[in-house]
């Protein structure tokens, strides 16, 4: 029995690592396409009034979606898992259709309200916008409002597939979303920023379309029915209230930061957006892939009250986030100027825009590891159907963020806004760890701390090597090609040094990855 349990546990770990690997590869491809998109947008529009208006117009529907749609989908997976365990796939699909239809109706109402009150919403979120920027952002926002519906349906179908441990289609949505935008700019950008907004709307719609074949393969059938007698809907409504409050508080935080950024120099919103895109490159490629894959497993363990297995999932996820994200943070801190220059300094995106983006990125990327760990612990609470604790801690974190933003923006400008975000993420992490220990007891904290110290030591060693390589080669190589060579050499040498240090310090997570790769190669040779 013990041997059987051991083998089953290892098979589960292998399956999760493989799934995370697939998601990471697809996410990396998606992020590469995303950067091609961003480079093209930066080259075509730079840090200008029109680009500020474009990014702000996307912010508004995202805020409304995050307030309701994201709150629903956050509580969706744990209840889908519960439904699947008790009623099978057919019962789960029936429940899923009820929630999808509720999502659709709420999204349509939000779209209509957004169209009616566009001017009032823009006045609240971007009071620093006047004249041409103000008129343009209102027009673009009216186009972008339909994105609320697309984002909501996409998130709902993603939750269904992830509950079934089908992670491919949800990972592909980022790729198809970029295709219309890239195509639009490459064929001539004839309709300016308005055409770009329409292409973005089309891309959001395609995110739903790409998931349909996988839903059909899993024998999902849509029906326009809402079973209000289903007790899980009532349960979801109870769980969702704290999430909506917590999400609403987060949106207040984003509004405050956008208001502050709108009052800074022209181009500040664009610089903040591109810094966030680089930050999200690492997060969504690596940290989010791990969070995405682990959440259904956490939900199953939580539903079945297998808390030892639950704790193992939590500690493993934190260690795996650290092993990938920490070296990425250190590398980006050192190489941020050449990386931003290579990616974005084309056309209208000049050296001033590079420096503004680098300033924002320096403080933002420093807290990325806290973002990943915070998401793991938030999902841990959601998995055991506790949505109140993340709400309270999130509200405290947002309060810290707003206060620090007000204090730091006066002294540090755009860098103060991103530093406040990092401080807030750290505070949230500390509070969530404390509360999760109260909830389920010891969470293998000693193991996570030891592993984290080894990873940080390896990352800092790598950082020292990269720093001297960058410093030396910068004096010899100039221009776009020179910066590309510096980045490539730094990455190759950095990865080798980091891997060597992990092996030297005997970090077990690296051995797990190496063993999986070896087995994969053996199977390939056999075939």
TrEMBL record:
Compartments, as annotated in UniProt: Cell membrane
Q: Which InterPro entries does UniProt cross-reference here? A: Lipid_II_flippase_MurJ/MviN, MurJ
Species of origin: Clostridium kluyveri (strain NBRC 12016)
Its chief place of residence is membrane
Q: Answer whether the UniProt record assigns the keyword Cytoplasm to this protein.
A: no
**What are the record keywords, sorted?**
Cell membrane, Cell shape, Cell wall biogenesis/degradation, Membrane, Peptidoglycan synthesis, Transmembrane, Transmembrane helix, Transport
Gene Ontology terms, MF aspect? lipid-linked peptidoglycan transporter activity
- What's a single GO BP term from this record? peptidoglycan biosynthetic process
TM helices/strands, residue ranges:
21-47, 53-77, 98-117, 137-160, 167-187, 193-216, 236-253, 280-299, 320-344, 356-377, 389-408, 414-433, 453-473, 485-505
- Protein name according to UniProt: Probable lipid II flippase MurJ
Q: How is this protein positioned relative to the membrane?
A: Multi-pass membrane protein
Cellular-component GO terms for this entry: plasma membrane
Q: Does the keyword Transit peptide apply?
A: no
- Source organism's superkingdom? Bacteria
HAMAP family in the record, alphabetically? Answer: MurJ_MviN (MF_02078)
Q: Function of this protein?
A: Involved in peptidoglycan biosynthesis. Transports lipid-linked peptidoglycan precursors from the inner to the outer leaflet of the cytoplasmic membrane.
Q: Which family is it part of?
A: Belongs to the MurJ/MviN family.
Family annotation (Pfam families): MurJ
Pathway assigned in UniProt:
Cell wall biogenesis; peptidoglycan biosynthesis
């Amino acid at each position: 029995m013990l041997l059987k349990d051991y083998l089953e546990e290892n098979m589960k770990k292998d399956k999760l690592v493989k799934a995370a690997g697939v998601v990471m590869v697809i996410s990396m491809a998606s992020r590469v396409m995303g950067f091609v998109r961003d480079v093209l947008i930066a080259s075509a529009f730079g840090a200008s009034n029109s680009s500020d208006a474009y990014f702000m117009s996307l912010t508004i529907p995202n805020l409304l979606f995050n307030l309701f749609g994201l709150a629903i989908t956050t509580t969706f997976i744990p209840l889908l898992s519960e439904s699947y365990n008790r009623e099978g796939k057919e019962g789960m699909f029936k429940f899923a259709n009820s929630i999808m239809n509720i999502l659709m109706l709420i999204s349509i109402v939000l779209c209509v309200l957004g169209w009616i009150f566009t001017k009032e919403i823009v006045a609240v979120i971007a009071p620093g916008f006047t004249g041409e920027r103000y008129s343009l952002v209102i027009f673009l926002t009216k186009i972008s409002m339909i994105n609320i519906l697309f984002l909501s349906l996409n998130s709902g179908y993603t939750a269904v597939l992830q509950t079934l441990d089908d992670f491919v289609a949800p990972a592909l949505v980022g790729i198809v979303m970029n295709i219309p935008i890239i195509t639009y700019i490459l064929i001539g950008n004839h309709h300016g920023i308005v055409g770009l907004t329409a292409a973005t709307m089309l891309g959001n719609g395609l995110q739903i379309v790409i998931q349909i074949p996988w839903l059909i393969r899993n024998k999902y059938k849509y029906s326009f029915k809402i079973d209000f007698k289903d007790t899980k809907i009532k349960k979801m409504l109870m769980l969702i209230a704290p999430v909506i409050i917590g999400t609403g508080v987060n949106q207040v935080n984003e509004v405050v930061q956008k208001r502050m950024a709108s009052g800074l120099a022209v181009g500040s919103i664009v610089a903040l957006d591109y810094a966030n895109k680089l930050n999200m490159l690492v997060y969504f490629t690596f940290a989010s892939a791990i969070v995405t894959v682990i959440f259904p497993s956490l939900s199953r363990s939580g539903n079945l009250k297998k808390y030892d297995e639950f704790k193992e999932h939590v500690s493993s996820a934190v260690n795996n986030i650290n092993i990938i994200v920490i070296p990425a943070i250190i590398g980006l801190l050192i190489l941020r100027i050449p990386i931003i220059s290579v990616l974005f300094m084309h056309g209208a995106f000049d050296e001033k825009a590079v420096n503004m983006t680098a300033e924002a990125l320096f403080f933002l990327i420093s807290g990325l590891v806290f973002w990943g760990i915070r998401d793991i612990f938030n999902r841990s609470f959601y998995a055991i159907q506790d949505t109140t604790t993340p709400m309270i801690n999130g509200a405290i974190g947002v309060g810290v963020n707003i206060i620090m933003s007000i204090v730091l923006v006066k002294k540090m400008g755009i860098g103060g806004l991103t530093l406040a975000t990092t401080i807030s993420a750290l505070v949230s992490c500390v509070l969530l760890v404390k509360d999760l220990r109260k909830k389920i007891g010891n969470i293998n904290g000693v193991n996570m701390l030891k592993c984290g110290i080894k990873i940080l030591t390896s990352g800092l060693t790598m950082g020292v090597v990269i720093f001297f390589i960058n410093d030396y080669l910068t004096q010899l190589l100039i221009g776009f090609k020179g910066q590309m060579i510096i980045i490539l050499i730094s990455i190759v040498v950095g990865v080798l040094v980091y891997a060597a240090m992990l092996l030297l310090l005997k970090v077990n997570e690296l051995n797990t990855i190496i063993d999986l790769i070896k087995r994969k190669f053996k199977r390939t040779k056999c075939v």
